[in-house]
Amino acid sequence: xxxxxxxxxxxxxxxxxxxxxxxxxxxxxxxxxxxxxxxxxxxxxxxxxxxxxxxxxxxxxxxxxxxxxxxxxxxxxxxxxxxxxxxxxxxxxxxxxxxxxxxxxxxxxxxxxxxxxxxxxxxxxxxxxxxxxxxxxxxxxxxxxxxxxxxxxxxxxxxxxxxxxxxxxxxxxxxxxxxxxxxxxxxxxxxxxxxxxxxxxxxxxxxxxxxxxxxxxxxxxxxxxxxxxxxxxxxxxxxxxxxxxxxxxxxxxxxxxxxxxxxxxxxxxxxxxxxxxxxxxxxxxxxxxxxxxxxxxxxxxxxxxxxxxxxxxxxxxxxxxxxxxxxxxxxxxxxxxxxxxxxxxxxxxxxxxxxxxxxxxxxxxxxxxxxxxxxxxxxxxxxxxxxxxxxxxxxxxxxxxxxxxxxxxxxxxxxxxxxxxxxxxxxxxxxxxxxxxxxxxxxxxxxxxxxxxxxxxxxxxxxxxxxxxxxxxxxxxxxxxxxxxxxxxxxxxxxxxxxxxxxxxxxxxxxxxxxxxxxxxxxxxxxxxxxxxxxxxxxxxxxxxxxxxxxxxxxxxxxxxxxxxxxxxxxxxxxxxxxxxxxxxxxxxxxxxxxxxxxxxxxxxxxxxxxxxxxxxxxxxxxxxxxxxxxxxxxxxxxxxxx
Length: 643
Known about the structure:
By secondary structure, this protein is α+β, with helices and mostly antiparallel strands. The chain contains 24 helices and 24 strands. The strands form 5 sheets. Strands 12-24-23-22-13-20-21 form a 7-stranded mixed sheet, sandwiched between helices. Helix 20 links the parallel strand 22 (510-514) and strand 23. Helix 3 (38-60) runs antiparallel to helix 4 (67-79), helix 11 packs antiparallel against helix 22 (555-589) and helix 11 packs parallel to helix 23. The longest helix has 35 residues, at 555-589. The protein is elongated and about 110 Å long. The protein starts with a helix and ends with a helix. Residues 624-643 have low confidence and may be disordered.
């Protein structure tokens, strides 16, 4: 509140002076000042900010803002000698605007809190062996800096763990109460809390490129972006000034009562209606960010409310996105396991794909070193090609065989069939146009995927489908376990896009959920695209309208529920604002209320709308608090044992 007072100190002072002058006039203590009536001075001082804004808008910006209505009403009241009424209208308007601004300021505080979770200082070291720490401001951290983060300290920047193992609380960023174990090679994010052991982190992203930086920028953009319903309201609002003046003129014409006409002008201001959508959107987007659901724009909030079909990608979305190499088959006697695995890791080392990470992880676990391939190129929907010692190397799915026109023996087909029956993904490796080996990759289903699909079918959307680039055997095994009826397998990116387009042509409203580069076209085409934020590639996250920062698949129903609650709040706000205005307008036309009561009712309606929007911050709060409490107790018991 102190900060708010400092920011609006002048407004508070004008309101206080106006209130004092009104009080002096009402009590008769001071009725005139320099022969001018005290109430008139109060009306001029209190109304001056409103007059100036209206004049600037009219003559400089060539727009008719709602403040013009209030100015016309106060000028009219002064013209008929209702000085006290004009002063009271000005005071009530100022108080109402301050309350509205304060309420809206609260909804933006979640964004500011995100900025404050990153520590202001960091411990920089030159190497693991060097015990000397240099304390530097967080804003001076650069990419490739090596940082030491001790237990109980917040992580100051995004990076990868180079030494140490610990538990990290990422709830300030993701809204996920469960702490995550981090080991060598794992990514950590600025603003999360190191809970158990010291770790060394090599920085890979800073500033706006970091997770927290991207979240802040996207939330700002989303809160400023207007929803379709808001753009419609803005267009309608442009008619209010001429329409209200016309109606006030008609009231005066039929009643010959200038006070009624002035009262009509006051109650006609649609401030509540104008606040109904932006306050709800700002609060909904802010609450989503707290829960780890990053909604990039107001249009997405409205669009997701109309979704009737969901298409899931498989790898990294329905599965954990942490696949493992379960088997390796050598197809050339000149190659051994270590050499083949090292070659594959050298080719996959520059890729962000989950299977690439599985291969490099397997090579590290077996102590195999490798050199990165040259002339590296990703072939979307096929795999990767590169050059090692002047020889072309290829790795990828069955489309690699088609790409190279390689005929395979029955032994290879039998091995692939055996892996398919087990639900494994088969990866082929070719060297110099010859097939030299194949790998079986297994990616387990996410723990809460089944419950999430059931939740969606029962409470939200029944038409759920899966589209994957993986083979039919793996796709159908996953789909059967998750009770998904419609399955599309062995797809290229343009084929995923075509499926979305076909459904939209048939009238479906599609939500596409994915995480990879090959999902980006479909994510952009869908009515709403949703990306798995942590395991997802940058391209997928940029293409999507919504990102799940914690990769918690169970938050998909939560995102749908938050959207429906936000849209419901907007509709409630519009009914409240317009209902109050209509009732007040009738009362004003019949002379049942005067200018002062009209101002009170008008501002009461606007404040009710803002408070109703702020109620979105209670969405999912109780369950989140309970989850946090349970998780913290579990971590304490695991670290220190039960007492």
